[in-house]
Amino acid sequence: MQAFQVSLRPSASAKRLTIAAHLAAVALCWRYFNGMAQWAGCAALLISLIGAWRYHKRLQNGNWRKIIIDTGGHVRIKCGNNQEYDAVLLGSSLIHRHACFLCFEYEKGKSWLTVLPDMTDAESYRRLLVWSRFGRPKADKNRPEV
Fold this sequence. Notes:
Oligomer: single chain
Distance between the termini: 21 Å
Number of strands: 7
Order of helices and strands: EHHEEEEEEH
Number of helices: 3
Mean pLDDT: 85
Number of domains: 1
Structural class: alpha+beta
Radius of gyration: 18 Å
Shape: elongated
């Protein structure tokens, strides 16, 4: 197996979906609530939209920026604050050609990462799909220790 890196960038489709879901929620809140509940619900949804937008724009330092896979199939994750962690891909991950929901276990605990096709180039996404399905080390497939 060749070593490769997957550099992650903000997903345009995730941002569009976030805005559409929040607009639909605001419309429902405006339609079915009255008075103070209506205004409080819309304010809460605005705060939620700001938080989701910051998450999808990858503005926090703790967000993952890169997935590095070596020749042995072992993975390292790199965060925005330039910290790297050894990680293990768990079997509870969901791998699909349209989205990868990866569950990693590393020093800080367990964390989920959603990787959409527009978050990286096509070749890196294809390599990530193949590695997550077939290329992991044999010991990693049965929930090893980190």
